[in-house]
Amino acid sequence: MLIFKLLTCQEVANLASDYLDKHTDGKLSLKIRVHLMMCANCRRFVKHLRITTAAAPHLVYKNTSPIDAEAILKKIKERS
Fold first, then answer.
1. N or C, which end of the chain is more exposed by having fewer CB within 10 Å?
2. Cα angle at 10 between 5 and 15, to 5 degrees?
3. pTM across the whole model
4. How is residue 24 annotated by DSSP?
5. Total domains present in the chain
6. Rounded distance, CA 80 to CA 78, Å?
């Protein structure tokens, strides 16, 4: 017979990132999955965290060219 303490919503929220990154052991992952089956709010939270985690790298501006501070300063002075 498998008996274990159910996780609270707060515990699931605290573990959600590790769970999505697969940094939880089998027993803890099972506890989280059981909680998610029963709790729509936590399912929604984990779903949104998954979407945010996937989207975040695409939202970061990656400047590939070096910044020419002198040219920027020159343009600012010209406009003043």
1. N
2. 80
3. 0.69
4. S
5. 1
6. 6
